[in-house]
UniProtKB/TrEMBL annotation:
Record feature DNA-binding region, as residue ranges: 121-224
Protein name per UniProt: Response regulator transcription factor
InterPro entries for this protein: CheY-like_superfamily (IPR011006), OmpR/PhoB-type_DNA-bd (IPR001867), Sig_transdc_resp-reg_C-effctor (IPR016032), Sig_transdc_resp-reg_receiver (IPR001789), WalR-like (IPR039420), WH-like_DNA-bd_sf (IPR036388)
UniProt domain Response regulatory: residue ranges: 5-118
Record SMART domains: REC (SM00448), Trans_reg_C (SM00862)
Limits of the OmpR/PhoB-type domain: 121-224
Species lineage: Bacteria, Pseudomonadati, Pseudomonadota, Betaproteobacteria, Burkholderiales
4-aspartylphosphate PTM positions: 54
Keywords, ordered alphabetically: DNA-binding, Phosphoprotein, Transcription, Transcription regulation, Two-component regulatory system
Organism: Pelomonas caseinilytica
Length: 229
């Protein structure tokens, strides 16, 4: 699954040109921006289905750009950057990006990452599709009928989302539910990893889109009806 429209924000002209051609051949309408301010000034800045973001940009830096996007759109965001280090990964994911790829990277890998994230962030085909959390069996029941065995941490997280009724749940609330504490002024990689494992558990079991998304500066949201049974 690929998005219909995509904004590519990167000041490497050669890389952007060839990646744009590659993605356009797959039917994606790509708009290029070599400056983050140029994207933000565009009339349709927050209307794209997907964003590919570099971190070292003229204007607003990549991390701040991701935070701005997350306040205005739930579209997929993938970072493709030459910056390395666990602190960079932490900063990017905490800001709200869905995935982080390190340059140099093959265009096919970028395309696969876009498709993987798009499957996750795309809205369910039916707003009435109900997910169910069976507390007796410890299973998640997908709208297509698939039953997925959950870990205790998975179950605790999903209980939080069910009680939130489609509203975002803060990182602090999720950590409290898991019996963990968030050190003041620090991000918690453990929560991000737990959420990632839950997503992957669901994706491996069913082709149904997973409506679990990050919300910058807040936490996470389950964008589909989720009932406790």
């Amino acid at each position: 699954m690929q998005p219909k429209s995509l904004a590519l924000i990167d000041d490497d002209a050669d890389y952007s040109e060839f990646l744009t051609q590659f993605l356009q051949e797959q039917g994606i309408a790509v708009s290029r921006f070599d400056d983050s301010n140029a994207l933000l000034a565009a009339p349709d800045a927050f209307s794209f289905d997907f964003y590919l973001v570099d971190l070292m940009l003229p204007g607003v830096n990549g991390v701040e750009l991701i935070k701005i996007l997350r306040r205005r759109t739930d579209a997929g965001v993938v970072v493709v950057s030459g910056r390395l280090g666990p602190e960079v990964f932490r900063e990017v994911i905490t800001a709200g990006a869905d995935m982080y790829l390190v340059k140099p990277v093959q265009f096919e890998q970028v395309s696969l990452a876009i498709a993987a994230v798009q499957r996750r962030v795309a809205k369910p085909s039916s707003a009435d599709a109900v997910w169910k959390l069976d507390r007796a069996s410890g299973e998640l029941v997908v709208p297509d009928g698939t039953r997925i065995q959950l870990s205790e941490a998975d179950r605790q997280l999903l209980e939080c989302f069910a009680q939130a009724g489609g509203e975002p749940v803060t990182r602090e609330a999720l950590l409290n539910k898991l019996g963990r504490e968030l050190p003041e002024g620090e991000a918690d990689d453990g929560l991000s990893a737990t959420i990632y494992r839950l997503r992957r558990r669901i994706e491996r079991a069913t082709p149904t889109l997973v409506p679990l998304q990050s919300k910058s500066r807040v936490g996470y949201v389950f964008r589909a009806p989720l009932q406790l049974i």
